[in-house]
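Dear support,

I submitted the protein below through the web form. The confirmation email said the job was done, but the results page showed an empty box. After a refresh the structure appeared. I'm attaching both so you can tell me whether what I see now is the final result or a partial one.
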Amino acid sequence: MELKTTADGSHTLFVPELNETYHSIHGAIQESQHVFIKNGLRYFNNKETINILEIGFGTGLNTLLTLLAIENSSQKVDYVSLEKFPLPNELIQQLNYPTQLKLNTTQTALFNDLHKCEWNTPTPISNNFNLLKIEEDLADFQTTTTFDLIYFDAFAPEKQAELWTDVIFSKIYSLLNAGGILVTYCAKGVVKRTIKSVGFQVETLPGPPGKREMIRAVK
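What the results page shows now:
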């Protein structure tokens, strides 16, 4: 695993075995902000409590940006994040998100808390943000909770094909509340067709820098 700097100055990780990065090389923070916050979280601006499921905790960037986005609002987020392969602490310590986002001391402490909190244990990170990180993959994940919003941040279909199947998207559909949404950076035709085939209404939206399109799918 290698630390890489993306076009907006923020870090991502490169996985040599997959020849793949965790985020867009055109800007990790920009991509996450555009796909998951602007076109995901902001969709629910008028909802008091939002249940979020993230597929791929990774560097914690999506989690951090969600926490910051509701920091001074009356919204409450219950956030569940799945990650089969948690990152080692020495890599996490090198990530430059606090610097790039110009976080104050309190916010930087919150970023550290996201990573330090125990796996598989619900943890209140702030007054309006609860986090449950689960060390498991989506195929094995079982829950009675249903979600308003799913951040689908798996590696690309050609790198992690098992996570882009009709079986997986059927499972995701069943985990969503009516009116709930899935957002992902990927907008390949085959992915759109697969998502539609399980019952979603698929919207194609402008993508983040370096990408023409992204997907928002509504139940």
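Response: this is the final, complete result; the empty box was a page-load delay. The helical segments are 28-38, 61-69, 89-92, 97-100, 105-116, 166-175, 189-197.
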